[in-house]
Amino acid sequence: MTEATAPSRTEPQGFSLSAIPLWGQFAAIIIFGVLLSLVWDGATRWPEAWVIPAAQWITDFIEWLKSEATIFGVEFKDITRGIGAALKAPVKWAEYLLYRGFKGIGLGPLPWVAVAAGVVIFAHWVGGVRLAILCGLTMIYLATFNLWKDSMKTMTIVIVAVPMAALLGITLGIWVTRSKTASRIFSPMFDLMQATPHMAYLAPVAALFAFGPVTALIATVIFAMPPMARCTILGLQTVSSDVIEAGQMSGCTKRQLLWKVALPSSKRTLMLGLNQVVMQTLAMVVIASIAGATGLGHKLLYSLQQLRLGVAIEQGVAISLIAIVLDRLTQAYAYKETDHFVAGKTFVQRHKHLLLFLGILVASYIAAEFFRWVKIPPSKFIWGSGDAKTVLFDAKLLARHMDQAIRDFNVVAFDYINPIRDWVTIWILLPVRDFFLWLPWPVFVGVIGLGAWRLGGMPVLLLCLALMFSFIVTGFWVETMKTTYLVLIAAALCVIIGVPLGIWAARSERVANIIMPICDTLQTFPSFIYLIPAIMLFRIGDFANIFAILPYATVPAIRYTYLGLKRIPPVTIEAGIANGATRMQRLFKVELPVALPEIMLGLNQTIMMALAMTAITALIGSTDLGQEVVRSISTQDFGRGILAGFFIAALGIIADRLIGSWAAERKRQLGVA
Amino acid sequence: MPTDAQIKCRNLWKVFGDDPQGFLRRHKGNPSPEALKEEGYIGAVQDVSFDVNQGEILIIMGLSGSGKSTLIRCITRLNDPTIGEMEYEGRDLLKLSERELIDLRRHKFGMVFQNFGLLPHRDVLENVAFPLEVQGISKADRVTRAKAMIDLVGLGGRESYFPRELSGGQQQRVGIARSLAVEPDIWFLDEPFSALDPLIRAEMQDEFIRLQSMLHKTIVFITHDFEEATKLADRIGIMKDGRMVQLATPEELVLNPADDYVAEFAKNAPRERIVSVGAIMQPVTDAASGTVPMSAKIGAVAEQVLTSENPVAVVDESSGTIVGSIDRQTVATSIFGTRSSEGTRAA
Questions:
Q1: Could you tell me which of A457, A601, A539, A450 has the C-alpha nearest to residue A4?
Q2: A251 CB near a chain B CB, below 8 Å?
Q3: Hey, are the CB atoms on B134 and A260 less than 8 Å from each other?
Q4: Which domains does chain A have, with CATH numbers?
Q5: Which residues of B touch A253 (CB under 8 A)?
Q6: Contacts of A355 (CB under 8 A, 6+ apart)
Q7: ipTM of this predicted complex?
Q8: Which of A249, A261, A265 is opposite residue B105, by nearest beta carbon?
Q9: Potential cystine with B153: which of A520, A571, B14, B173 (Cβ 3.0-4.6 Å)?
Q10: B203: containing domain
Q11: CB contact, 8 Å: B105 with chain A?
Q12: Together in a domain, B260 and B287
């Protein structure tokens, strides 16, 4: 139906059917869709008989792959088994090293004292005393709160996944910069992969590989790789042409130019890519607990499901601290300048950090033979002995007390919280949800389609139509609408909260100095931990889910608003002042209109992050697409999970193309592209 | 001046666009500016022919966008010309294999870049030794050689500094040392001092003159600064819109500019340092008192002539005979120009 109102591509603003204003076109589509739904039930709910059982096909296909398929005479299941076995080896070694110990040769795992000292020493080397203190406190926290072993389990996958994702990313990145074909294939793929939420990766990988750490590892590597590839591409493409030409004129071969000139010159960008890989890996590993990753994420999920909130908070803090430490360490390493070689320093002086670590390592292995607490951190500190002994600190007891305290707090707080939650749920959330569930699909398709057409022309329209019909004809309309409703409400709230904060920060240096670091920190945390306060305050339900999305997805709204306003050329603002605009007039008539494209890109990011987070709220209970993914892994009905993951990504792509096209066009009009 | 050509360029074209080869073929290798414009092609280098002679400093000068940087990149084959012929010591530069080209760059060519092009992850010594390293020269040898180069450019003692720890002038000294490390036969300098502030620039120009007086390289030097060009050049090629408008000695450019564009540059030139007495002398006159040498620049004799009531006799130093005379009027007009309105030019 949108075809009928087709404008010509050359003049998207004024076309032959311009007799009908834009609102009229939208109104016509909506009225048509509603009327259609009155006379034809199929417009409300896609007719059962027309549903394409794609989910079943995929499940059957995977079944066939796993049982019968052969590729070049090799059974497919042997291939996946081979990959699984190959990947299991490094995971095993990391496990031996971090918490299992090398049983064969009678060597224990790294004593926790050695690991903690190693992290602190490394921190001191790359970032100085302050970073070392931060790391030291984190290590002590992990040790005393009885979270050491679970932390090491989590780190097992991290230390295996990070090098793999980094190498894969760098390799693909190099390939993309060298081959046009590779660029054509991979560049859009990396874009797509970055828009795809964590959850969507789990079902397909879990389908091919058995539940367990290898599945978690593969999903993590795939999820964490794109930023490395993109940073590699960016780094290689932004090496100054003088440097490249100097390399060529020095007589470098192509290989020398890459390894001796281009890659080392882009070290900083590569290191920032590594930082992102590490952060993405951690974020994924904790979520991958539903696909068989053990460790902190697994324990946290369990605590949340048991409503043992005291423990959950301890575990959440641990994950957050690990995230902060990994982030700061990799950033410090990225910005660390090569040491200035000073003649006259001895070998020991130059390698004091390394030697100190090796010394502690050996000493702690020996000490571990005599003192148990060197090997495994004590969770209880006891002073004295016999009758005179006092328990100074007991992690388990503390967690129990915290559980109790939170329960007590909730009993009191629920008197105030529950009425608010219920009122909002009944009067706002449910009506909006019901609206989306009532919405006839032709209205949805028509409105989005017309928007896509007007904003991006035929390619965007076709893409959006294909994506929309993919979830309509496969019978996922209800789940998709539930996700859409949650994401839209959450995104609206994020904008309502985030844009004013961004404006405030842009206007006051002092506010910016407070808000921006908070934003940085909020983005450092794996999204999983935002479930903890949501459950603590609101238990389960849509309200809790939306609450969990807010801290995570508001950040881009704040940041893009702030940057958008900050990037306005001073001349533009001065012109406003010179014309006698008041502060308010300046904001609404000059600054916000100019910054709007940037703010809209922030909204785009907010929607992406809200989508990713909605899927994660499935872990504490939801009924939308994310839940389909989680359920598919336990029921082994992978078709539904894979499709649901794809549809989450599809919603993201639709939003991205609509907003992205608008912002690009607007930027072009403003001449700031 | 030695005259055997070390580099020969004939009818070089570098055209940017969808199908530059086909475009040039359609126009028989010589499209008009209108044709370029009409079909949306950009002629960065258009039909440029010239020789670079053994041991000379050839300066290619022009405003930004005139094609001078593209031209030097064509000769060094950082950017291949669309069509044309280039020879280096009789070898066809465009027929070199990848390997031969790398060898040529490793042993014969040296290049200095406007923004230095230093490798940020290597210290001074490693930067200077880099061209030797990629050749596979042993570490001991390349350190010795690099140290000598670092001393040559006056950076001795800073071998372990990183580029970020050096000032712009020092960084360019590293760039120069690196380009000289392989003892190239021909030295390309692409606006080497343009990124430096004026005082440092003057200092580096003097440094360059000092180095060249020791090394006697063949030099192709790019600049947009006419004063710099006249200070350093044996010959100057002036480029405009991709074409080489005039290639001549500084003196010829000032005295016989090929067109208004060259004249405009020459107008602001420090004539007293460029024009020699012989070029503006008048016939021998009996009234002359005192003598000046024919090849002296007028700036050098200005005081003597201006303070002399009478014209001064001009002597050909090689034969010792008087060949002409020069008076106040001639010196004044040749320094300050003929029109009084131009008396305000920047010195």
A1: A450
A2: yes
A3: yes
A4: 74-109+145-336 (1.10.3720.10), 439-670 (1.10.3720.10)
A5: 102, 134
A6: A348
A7: 0.83
A8: A249
A9: B173
A10: 55-71+97-108+184-269
A11: yes
A12: no
